[in-house]
Amino acid sequence: MIDNNIIAPVLIHLFTALLQLVFWRKTVTHRVLSVVGSLLGSVVSVNLFIKVFYGEILIMNAANWPAPFGIVFVADTFSTTLVLLTSIVALAVSLFSAIGVGRARMLYGYFPIFHFLIMGMNGAFLTGDIFNLYVWFEVVIISSFVLLTLGGRKAQLEGAVKYMALNILASTFFLTGIGILYGITGTLNMADLSGKIPLVENQAIVNITALFFLIGFGIKSAVFPLYFWLPSSYHTPPSAVAAIFGGLLTKLGLYAMFRVFTLIFEPDDFMKAVFVVIAVLTILTGAFGAVIKSNIRRLFSYLIVCHIGFVIGGLGLYTKVAITGAIFYLIHDIVVKTNLFLISGLIRQLRGTMDMDRLGGIYDEYPKLSLLIAIVLFSLVGIPPLSGFWPKIYLIDGALEGNNYLFVGAIILGSFVTLYVIAKLWAKVFWKAASEDLLIEDSFKSLNLYNKVLLVAPIGLLAACSLYIGLNAEMIITVSSRIAGELIDPSMYIKAVLGK
Amino acid sequence: MELLLVFLIGILYAAGIYFVLRRSMVRLLLGILILGNATNLLIFLLGNLTTGKPPIIDAGLKTFADAYADPIPQALILTAIVISFGLTSFAIVLLKRVYALIGSDDLDDLNTPEEEDL
Question: Which of A20, A99, A398, B50 could form a disulfide with A321 if both were Cys (CB 3.0 to 4.6 A apart)?
Answer without folding.
Answer: A398
